[in-house]
Design a protein that fits this description.
By secondary structure, the protein is of the alpha+beta class. Helix content is 44%, strand content 12%. The protein has a domain of 79 residues: Winged helix-like DNA-binding domain superfamily/Winged helix DNA-binding domain (Arc Repressor Mutant, subunit A, Orthogonal Bundle). A hairpin with a 5-residue loop joins strand 2 and strand 3. It starts with a helix and ends in a 31-residue tail after the last helix.
């Protein structure tokens, strides 16, 4: 098992799941949202994004349906399934463990939009993802 590749795939998968937690998005919008909330630190290119979306869909963690974009183009919109909830719960658990193991959790600045349920800051990062 190639651990660095698995780590990257797992990280991309979690980023995607976290990004579409508030509601369905199409692929390009997912990449743009990640880029936006990371303040251009993370740029998910098509070579990583679309294989991850297809993999998550094959695993049953995402479902997709065709829709019209704001530009009247056909886009495939992705949304979470119940199968993705355990993975998101795992993120919450890891988040809490990281915060507790770090005492005060000085992993970065705090923002009102970086909160996990239960009050722990989501990795206390600069990434203002909505609460999961």
């Amino acid at each position: 098992m190639n651990k660095p590749r698995d780590l990257v795939q797992g990280t991309v998968d979690l980023l995607i799941l976290k990004t579409i937690t508030p509601g369905p998005l199409h692929g390009w919008a997912i990449a743009q949202r990640i880029k936006q909330v990371s303040k251009d630190v993370m740029k998910l290119n098509q070579n990583a994004l679309y294989p991850a979306l297809h993999r998550l869909e094959e695993q049953g963690r995402l479902k997709s349906e065709w829709d019209d974009s704001e530009n009247n183009r056909r886009v495939k919109c992705y949304s979470l399934t119940k199968a993705s909830h355990p993975m998101l719960s795992l993120v919450r658990g890891i988040c809490g463990s990281l915060i507790r193991s770090n005492g005060a959790g000085k992993l970065g600045s705090r923002s009102r939009r970086t909160r996990c349920r239960g009050g722990a800051a989501f990795f206390r990062s600069q990434l203002p993802f909505e609460a999961i």
